[in-house]
Design brief:
Largest sheet: 6 strands, mixed
Distance between the termini: 86 Å
Oligomer: single chain
Radius of gyration: 31 Å
Number of helices: 4
Amino acid sequence: MTHIVKGANTPVPTGPLRVAVCRRKVPGTPVVDVSALLLDATGKVRGDADLVFHNQPAHPSGAVRHLGTGDGVDQLAEWLELDLPRVEPAVQRVLVAASCDGGTFGAVPGLALQTVAGDGTIVAHYDVTDAAGERAFVLGEFYRRNGEWKFRAVGQGWESGLAGLATDFGIVVAEEPVATAPVPVMQAAVAKTAAAPIADAVPPSPYTPVAAPTPLGADFRPHTQSGRGNGVVSVDVPLPPGPVIVEARVRGDEWLLVETLNRRNKDEDTVFNTTLRDFHGRALVQPPRDRPLRMKVNYDGDWTISVLPLSAARPLGTRTLAGRGPDVVAYTGTMADVKVRFDGGADRGEWFVLNCHEAEHFDDLDEHEMLCNETGKLKQTVPVPDGPLLLVIEHGDGSWELTAEPLPVRDPSAGQKTGAYEGRGDRTVTLVNPRPGRPALVRYDFPGAKADYSLEVQRVDEYGDETEWLTGRQHGTRGTAVLFADGRAEQAVRVKCGGDWTLRLLPEDQAPLLTGPTEGRGSTVLRYQGPPTLMTVQRTSRGNDEHLSAWSLNHPYGKSTTIADTLGRRRPTLGPVWVDPGGTCFITVRAAEDTKWRLEPAPLSAAPVLGARTPGGWYGVVRHTGPEAELVVVGTAMIHVFELDENLFPHRKLTASSGPYRISNAILHVRCLGEWTLELRP
């Protein structure tokens, strides 16, 4: 362990690190919040994203994350994670800062900072021993020097609080009581950024909060407690954020019940509930963030309960892993097919459940995939994505075997060279636009997948939020779609598919030009170079439940609007093709690969003129050419009526209110799930 004093520095490994900010837990002392600031060569943040704290827990680069707070009986530890290889070149320093709520740092006991390397080595430990009246503090910094990273103990405070710290590092703080966007957000962010000072010597506590990063999370010293009869297990040390493994061992065949306790010291979640003789099992448990993990044990005989880090999970490699009863298994390899065998238990009728927890969802154990859920003997093969992940075996008493067979690893950079991105199973891949500033076509193929919602491709933004792009139900398992409609240089997509898949980028000019009636099959993309027009959309194949829709998409606007949706009907449907002046218009057709269709441009005069009472059904276009009048919309199902502008873009939604609506010389687009009637009143 390297102890350093204020102003000193020490090299740190260029790899993933965790920073533990800890303080003694004493009632009535000020609350401390921790955060990180990413600074450029001028010593300033570049924008809001360079501030990482509990309300903005991840930097867009993924290089810095706020993991949360662990709560022990006499100590608190708040965690930051730094992935130094992912820090952008423009970032020269990463500060660990803190704010003190309801007091000053001189009143906060036992503050310490520890930096822990991937192998568990404590590479830097700094105690703050001279804090006094400061209300904001920079505790330390990670900085580049000659191609390497170092850590320096800074220990600089501001009695002026957040305003002083923020001003020095380029953060604008609104003066009270101004509450205009986005300054209040920034002000709150700084409040969280100036959170906890960090120490240079081991805190005066029997527990040293060491959290060594592993592929599955932070390590900690196991906690074991034994007893006889009913008892309570209390983990009185701060645990790193994330789940832990709870292991139970008993002698005899009495009923064992282990349950977590809530804030009121009452039963909450069941961990074990079994009557198996000489039971030995493991389960996954999410400790509370704001208090110690406590569990109630009901058993008449001897028992031992252990709380273990995720690194204690049994590893699943390329050899068969055998076990009996509930267990937690770690898989850190590439995507694989896992062969599962279960003997059914002693009476051949036991229940076997196998769940898969991916690392990105460890903070929510309800977010998992159930791979097996069977009774009796079992022999199956199930796919798993890239690790790290946990395979959790629940229920039943019986022998089981797991064998992982990794799939061939494809070169992730090959797609940038060839334009063809290939994979298998669930995967996130970044597609690179071959012509930044222009759209591209994507020819997709999911051989063997089902044309339903189990096949999904979603666009992922820089914050990890997902938006629907392709689904098997609407787009089929193969076809063509548009990507980069707004001209962006790259796009991350998340593929959810049980088998092989290919996404191939093609230039936009490979989309056929639509100049007149056109027939086709499945999902495709057509270019349209004419003026705004109406389009007749018709399904020509005979399937009763086939779904066909057509959309107008314009570059560089980047947004698509509905032309028509047949909703499973074969009757021709009339819809508008929106055209952005000066842009490029694409017609995208969405249909399963066996669905046949016909498109035909139509003049504006093809839309019926509104009369006193105009009936219709589902999607359609109507015109009002007379003087200003009131329109009343009557629909038998969900209905939306849009008024279109001169480019046939929906610029006003009439059905946003109860009506009636005043219209004059209008073109209206009706979208409904059934029959409708439009009534016109002078």
